[in-house]
Every structure is written in structure tokens, then in C-alpha cells.
Amino acid sequence: MARTTKKSKAQINKQIWDKANNSLRQRWQTVSQKGYDFYLNEQLTKDEMTMLEESGMPTFTINRITPIIEIMKYFVTANNPKWKAVGATGDDVDVAQVHSDVADYCWYLSNGKSLYSQVVLDSLTKGVGYFLVDVDKDADRGMGEVRFNRVDPYDVFVDPSSRDFLFRDASFIQIRKNISRGRLINMLPQFQTKIKKVTKGSDVVSYSQRDAEFTDSIQPEDLTYGVNMDAEDDDIIPYYETYSKKKFKYRNVYIKIEPDDSELLLLKEQVQEQLEIFKQEIEVQLIEKQIQIEQQVQEGEIIPERAKLMIENSQKMAAQGIQEKEMELISEARSDATIIKEQVMSESQYLEFEKDKNFKKNIVDSIEFYENRIVKCCSVGDDTFLFEQTIPISEYPIVPIPYMYTGTPFAMSAVTPLIGKQQEINKAHQIMLHNANLSSNLRWMYEEGSVPEDEWEKYSSAPGALLKYRPGFSPPTPIQPAPINNAFFTVVQQGKTDAEYISGVPSAMMGFSQDQAETYRGLLANDEFGTRRLKAWMNSIVEPSLEHIGRIFKMMAQKHYNIEKVFRIVQPEANNQEEKEVRINVNLYNDYGKAIGKYKDYASARFDVRIIAGATLPLNRWALLEEYFRWYQAGLIDDVAMLAETDIRNKDKIVERKSMLSQMQGQLESIQGLIKEKDGTIETLQRQLVQAGIKMKVGDAGNEIRKDVLETESQQKLLRGMLKVEFQKMKEQMQSDIKSTKKDINKNEQS
After folding, report:
1. How big is the chain by its Cα radius of gyration, in Å?
2. pLDDT tens digits, residue range 424-464?
């Protein structure tokens, strides 16, 4: 097999583009470009405009496509997409929760909302939009950041045999750009010597039907040269990025990691505590044994020499037992401290580590497997190789969002089905205006020489003009235009209705309907029935694409963010810009200052990423507030819950005051309950006195009861007075707060 050289890799890049840029691809771009032209109101070719002008017809257009596309774009991109990470195990839950914050940080860093809007617009007008996830190695002072990017659909060339709408089965995806030499050098300064030597590429091919010299819009293919910093024309050269999948051999290695010397020392200290307890037990046993032997000597059962020997043997056995126990405890502690770590490594890494004897002896198991990796090959011109790198992810970082998927890489745009109706509307308007021009500016038939032609041309359309003709000739006769057929008005109106029907965007969605619903339920009904086709597209194409982007970002981020990092995310909540701080890969240290692991180990965590369905859909806030008000009137929610959903300024303070008021009212009700309880006690005592027939002058017991009653009545009167004064103060303060709040609300409404 011939060795693949750098030059041959560059030539292969060029050959791939030649194969991908076949007749089918060119035909697709021609159709797609026409749709994009119609969106930009470039709806007449040069030949059509010339023909209309020669016929005296107007050349204007009534663009019905742009408003439809813009409202479709708004509906799909009203809010940012939200990704939710789900941990595989309990240990991964914390990291999974952090991942959503990391995604939000990188999305904000990439100006994701603007990118998303442009990608969806590409999908609607060109047939497909593309996201690209990559790493900006120069960001964050060389630490790098994962970023989202947009790629122009006309720069992307896909394996024609792909049948997956996400192109996961494609053998390659290539980005081919016509770029100025100076811009490319700025992008890749490390290759400027090679880039400077590249010859100028072929002329840029235009697929547009418009005449670039007389067009209202300027598009990329119109720019055939750049300008460098020396104020000189800069050549446009072709730049290639080819992404392909390649299987690499990996090993899932299970490694036994035993404690090191410092950890062993710590373990021995812990073992000594257990060993001391064991020694005390042994000492007690020795004493008991010695007493038993001495008793046997006194009773004459054994001789002293034998007793001495038995005591020495017991001491030796005890010392041996203590030693064995120490070794047993250390072995158990060491075994408990030994962990089995799972680590995935490439075959080359495994073979390199295997050279280490300690590593090799600690391998518990090793499982071989193959996994896709993305290989990126970059070149410029026909044969100039720049670099090749392996991206540590298993799926292409280029993710499409097609509009009308055709089972091929050549998706159809939302504009294409509308072109016919747009042409019909334009033609009807042109004919009607032409007829109106003829009616207000009549044509004349006259005998040659009967009128001064210059005078007639100048004044024939002037109101009240007095025109003369030469005697002996017949007076000029006006040519009346045929009355406009009412069918043209029907065609225009029906064309508008048909355009809405084809696109699935009714007038109510654009705010043009005179019969719009005013209730929240009515608005929801309009959104539900008027946007079903858009929602179907979002459910089947947009959200699966966004979910795929989220998984690619997860793979890229986990490989890149492998050291301790702090993410600071600004979150707009309650009209306040609150900053949230998130940390990942926080090092953990033992008592000896050695790193023993990581808290929130982002790189090794296992979790899946899902898109939150409907997160990008718009929300009619005023309609929702109306519904909240209905719930409040029905008693389903309280005024605090209602207030929380409004945009009233200082609503937090209002809620706080209302909370204090509720608390004080609760306290008052509690005190009133105590008073009622005291009243009930007094009444009970009085009834007991009457029922028992006990008079006030009967005995000391009666006196004591009367004393308690009087004291209770006195306390009651005092308590009622104090509560009355306190409640009056609270009432006055609350009335003052309510007046102040009303003033604030009136000021806000006026402003």
C-alpha cells in the first residue's frame, strides 16, 4: 500500500469536493439560491425586468414571503434552547446538574441566540442550517473554550449516499470556503508561509438568477476579492476542512490502586488504636492465666519450674498473637483502602503504560473495544496540506437542521413551495397597476400631421388642458383600455390565502387578523391550531437536532474541561442580573497534602443530555397575566401569587409588606383566641360556683376562687386595652404602606 503523503492528503481533499460538488448538488444549490433570492425580494431576473420595461409594465414586486419566513423564524427561536443532563449513577447527579450551567455559559459566550436565529433562517430559506461545535484554543488566555458556530449551508458538502437527516451515516462532511488569503492567515497564523505560496483559486461561481451588477442585495458570491492591510487586492483562495469517522482501538482497563507510603503511615496509626484494645485484652488473659497457674502450684498440681515455663510460653504466644493481629489489621485496612479504578485509554497509551511493572501487576482486567473518532484534515488550494487532527468525539461536530427533509442531503426550503404563488401575486399586481396607468394616461390615435406632437405629448394628460389640431383633419381619438377583470382581484386575495395555507402561517400569527382572540384560551387556541405544522417540524427535526448538538457539546466539553475551572454565569431573574458561580474538577487532598481525587469530576462523569421540549417556543405574557387574574378572581390563587407574575416595580417589597401584614393579622387572631379562651374559663368558674351553691362569703376556698376570678377579669381588661392600642397602630401603619404602594404603582403606569 502506497504511503499517504501530506500532498496526497491535500489532493484527496480537493477530489472529495469534486465528487461532492456533482450535478445534483449544483441543481440543489440553484433551487435553494432561488428561494433565498425570493426571500431577499430578488424576484425578477434581468430578462424578466427587460421584457416588462419594454412592454411598459411596472417591475415592482409585492413580497409575501419575507413576513411569513420572519414569523416562522421568530416562533422557533423565541427563546434559547435548554439542555437537561441526567446522571447515570448517584455519584454523577451533581456533575449532571452542573453541565446545564456549563452549556449555558458556552452558549452565551458564543452569542448562541443570534447563531440559532441565523441557522433557523438558513433552514427556512436555503433548506438546511448548520451548527458547528469546536474549541477556540486561544480563548481564556490559551486555556480554550468550547464554542458554538454557524456554517453557511452553501459551504457544506456531504456524502451524497447519506440517508440520515443528521448525517451520522455519512462517510465524510466537508466545509469548503472561498476565503481571502489575508483572512485565512489571520485564522491560521502558524501556517502563513504555506498560505502565502498558494496560487489563486478558480473564479467564484454564482447560482443566483439575479444580475449581480444591477441587484439590490449583495451576497457572498458577489465578492470576488478582498483587501489586505497594504490596501491591495487580496486573492480569494479555496480552503478545505474534511471531517471523517475512523475506528480506533481502545481498552477499558480496571486497575487496582493501592495506598501509597503516606497513606500506609496513616493506616498504621489507625491500626494502632485497634491494636491497643487487643493488647489490653491479651494482658488481661495473661494475668488470668498466671493466677490460674499460681493457684495450681499452691495446690501442688504442678511444680514451680513447670509453672515458670508455662508462663513464659503464654507470654511468647501473646506476643506472637499481637504481632499476627497487627499484620491482620494492616492487611484488612490496606485491602479496604485499595480501590479498583476504571480507565479508558487508547491502545498506544495502554502499551506505553504496560511497560511499567507496577502498572502491569495491578491490572485486574482489560477489555478491548473499538470506537469512532472524528478526523479533521485541513488543506488550502489544490495540493497544500496544513494539518490533521483527531477530535476526541464519536459524532460529527457539524449538525444540520433541515426544513423539508427529502431523504438525501439536499433538503427543500420553506420558500420553494411559495415561489409560484409569489410570482402569481406579482403578475396580478403588475397587470392591475399597468391598467390603472393606462386609464389615467390615455393613448391617442390621430392622422399624421393633424396635431403638434410635442404639445400633445406634454399636455395631453394635464387637467383642463386645451389642445388643438389642424383644420381639415379628424380630431384625435383616445384609445380606452379594456376594463380590468375582477378575476385579478380574486387572484391577489386568493394568492395571499394560498401562501398562508402552504406555509402554515395564518394572518393571526402575524398580527394582521381583525378577529383576534382576546382571551388567554383564545390565544392559546390560535397558537395551537395555527402553528401545528411548525410544531411538527420542531418535534421531528429541530428538537432532535438540538438534542444531538447537546450530546456533541457534552463530549467536546468533557474532553476539554479536564482541570479545575470556575464558570460565572449571569442570570436575569426578577429584573436583576444575578451572577451564578459554578466550579468543576475541584481537587481533593488528604492530610498529607496529596491530591487523592476530584469533587465534581466533570471529565469522567457519566450522564446523558436531553433537550427540554418546547423550550424555544414563545410565550404570550399579557395573555398569561389575564389568565392569572381570572384564577385570582376565582380564588384559585392569592394576591401574592398574582403579584409575583406581574412586572410591577418593587414588587418584592410589596410582597414583603403583605407578608408582614398577614403575620400580624395571624398574631391578632391568636390573641383574640386567647381572650375568648379566658372568657370561657371565667364563665365556667361562675357556673361552677352557682351550681355548687357556694357563696362568696363561704370559707377560704370561696375567697380564693373569687380572687382568681377578679384577677382574670383584670388581666382580661388590661390585655384587651393593650391589644386595641397595638392593633390601631398596626392598622395605621398598613394604611400608610398601602397608600405608598398605590403611589408607586401609579408612577410606574404613568412612566
Report:
1. 44
2. 888 887 777 666 665 556 566 766 766 776 766 665 655 55
Grid cell at residue 735: 394604611
Query: In the prediction, which pLDDT does 223 show?
Result: 76
Burial class (CB in 10 A: 0-12, 13-18, 19+), 221: middle
The letter for the amino acid at 111 is: N
Q: Work out the burial of residue 246: count CB atoms within 10 Å of its CB; fewer than 13 is exposed, 13-18 middle, 19 or more buried.
A: exposed
Strand segments, DSSP code E, in 14-103 are: 83-87
pTM given for the model: 0.70
Distances (CA, A) of 113 to 69, 133, 402, 547, 657: 17, 15, 18, 16, 38
Confidence band (pLDDT; 50, 70, 90) for 713?
Answer: low
Q: What is the pLDDT of residue 158?
A: 96
Question: Residues 49, 52, 53, 59: what is their CA dihedral angle, to the nearest 10 degrees?
Answer: -60
User: What are the backbone angles phi and psi of residue 100, rounded to the nearest 5°?
Assistant: -60, -40
Report yes or no: 287 and 280 within 8 Å, Cβ to Cβ: no
Contact residues for 372 (Cβ-Cβ < 8 A; gap 6+): 245, 246, 247, 248, 394, 395
For the stretch 259-267, contacts whose Cβ atoms lie closer than 8 Å and that sit 24 or more positions apart, written own/partner, are 259/334, 259/337, 259/338, 260/594, 262/590, 262/592, 262/594, 263/337, 263/590, 263/592, 264/334, 266/590, 266/591, 266/592, 267/330, 267/333, 267/334, 267/337
C-alpha grid cell for residue 3?
504511503
DSSP string, 308-346: HHHHHHHHHHHHHHHHHHHHHHHHHHHHHH-EEEEEEEE
Only one residue has cell 496560487, namely 199
CA–chain centroid gap for 76, Å, is 13
Q: What CA–CA distance (Å, rounded) separates 597 from 63?
A: 63
- Cell numbers 489575508 correspond to 182
pLDDT, tens digit, 9 for 90 and up, residues 348-375: 888 888 888 877 888 888 889 999 999 9
Segment 132-167, tens digit of pLDDT: 999 999 888 888 999 999 999 999 999 999 999 999
- DSSP per-residue string spanning 592-646: TS-EEEEET-TTT--EEEEE-TTTTS---HHHHHHHHHHHHHTTSS-HHHHHHTS
DSSP tag of 240: E
Query: CA separation (Å) from 660 to 33, 201, 671, 705?
Result: 64, 75, 17, 41
- In whole angstroms, what is the distance from residue 327 CA to residue 333 CA? 10
Cell numbers representing residue 412 in the block: 427543500
List, for residues 62-71, the tens digit of each pLDDT value. Answer: 888 998 899 8
Q: Which of the listed ranges 1-10, 32-41, 635-644 does the model predict with the highest average pLDDT?
A: 32-41
The DSSP call for residue 547 is H
Query: At a CB cut-off of 8 Å and minimum separation 6, what does 506 contact?
Result: 500, 513, 526, 530
Residue 604: CB atoms within 10 Å: 16
Q: How far apart are CA 420 and CA 230, in angstroms?
A: 48
